[in-house]
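[recover] target loaded
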């Protein structure tokens, strides 16, 4: 169950980070409230995962899911660069997350 909590925490982390862009510096009410809610839910889910998972592993995977999701969404939603070096670095994040899951 802890891994499910961690996966969901990572997904809400993506929502939190993307919400920061849409809130425009917390000047827009609804995106700001959604961003705060996503952050709170993400952190709560992370605390649930940390009941049984090692903190270093869980935190690295949580941030990795968030970084990967935001990078991919940035490419699709905001036209961020999809150059091969950038995609290779995103691949390294995926490899790190998978590696931590396998050994953690």
């Amino acid at each position: 169950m802890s891994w499910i909590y961690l996966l969901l925490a990572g997904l809400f982390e993506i929502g939190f980070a993307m919400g920061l862009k849409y809130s425009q510096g917390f000047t827009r009410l609804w995106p700001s409230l959604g961003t705060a809610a996503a952050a709170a839910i993400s952190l709560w889910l992370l605390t649930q995962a940390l009941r049984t998972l090692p903190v270093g592993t869980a935190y690295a995977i949580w941030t990795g899911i968030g970084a990967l999701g935001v990078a991919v969404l940035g490419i699709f939603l905001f036209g961020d660069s999809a150059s091969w070096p950038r995609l290779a670095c995103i691949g390294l994040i995926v490899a790190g997350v998978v590696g931590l899951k396998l050994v953690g």
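[recover] notes: Helices lie at 2-23, 29-49, 55-78, 84-103.
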